[in-house]
């Protein structure tokens, strides 16, 4: 049986070079999500991208220091996502994020 529930998907965009209090932004966001009680988080590393600055960032085999785009994604109940967003206010986080309403579909097996 399929169960569908309304959820929010939060995506936070940053780069590998971004830092919050000297620590990698993506790591801080993931740790904060766990401590806030989010159901889960996924970190995507892009091979190439550009943002508002217009600077194109791409993967180079011999490059030792990278600034590739990252996306940290969460899907959870609206109240949990909103609580998480409120905790970001306490950080010196500057970034771009999106919020979308999604249907979370869970297969619970035959009944």
Q: Which terms would index this structure?
A:
Alpha-Beta Plaits, two-stranded antiparallel ribbon, globular, four-stranded antiparallel sheet, N-reg_PII/ATP_PRibTrfase_C, alpha+beta
Question: How would you describe what is shown here?
Answer:
This protein has 111 residues and is an alpha+beta fold. The chain has one domain: Alpha-Beta Plaits. It is 21% helix and 43% strand. A four-stranded antiparallel β-sheet has the order 4-7-1-8, covered by helices on one side. Strands 2-3 form a two-stranded antiparallel ribbon. Helix 1 crosses helix 2. The longest helix is centred in the first third of the chain and has 12 residues. The mean pLDDT is 86.
Overall shape: it is: globular
Number of domain units: 1
- Would you tell me the overall average pLDDT? 86
Strands side by side in the biggest sheet = 4-7-1-8
Count of separate DSSP helical elements: 2
Order of helices and strands: EEEHEEEEHE
Kindly state the number of beta strands: 8
